[in-house]
Design goal:
Blueprint lengths: L3 H16 L29 E5 L4 E8 L4 E8 L13 E6 L6 E7 L12 E5 L10 E6 L7 E6 L3 H6 L1
Antiparallel strand pairs: 1-2, 2-3, 3-6, 4-5, 4-7, 5-6, 7-8
Amino acid sequence: MRRVFPAICVLLAAGLLSSAGCGGKKDLSKPIVKKNEHPHPDKGPHGGVLAEWGADEYHVEYVFDRDKKQATFYILDGDTASKATPIAAETVTLTLKHTKMPVEIAAKADRDKDDPEGKSSRFVAVHEALGEKVPFKGSISGKIGDKPPYEDDFEEKEKSEQKKK
């Protein structure tokens, strides 16, 4: 009896765990969204890759032009990542981490024609390190109002990896 009792307890526990929950079938037609993840496009309206600031508050589209040694960041809405969302900030910070020592670059506000006075949805940086012909890895951060700074990491893919998608 001593050996049977633990086995019965294990079987009962397994049965209770498997029957807990909704009881219905899962809807596999909807995307599964994990915590702090949500479906959004892979690319922004300017053809750049997206980073996320906050929990669906903003998206940052980044576009690198190595010939001009320039990076342009577009602040977009948190829902669709398609609408310009001007913020009250003079700079956002790009930190390149693929280099031997991290390189911190300030991108200055470069107001779009539709941005209101005192706010910008576009930020531009020019720096020698932005001319490197390697995939960039780093983070984009910015402070908006009294909230703690927003930050998200990014990593460019090799050109051959981008074509596979």
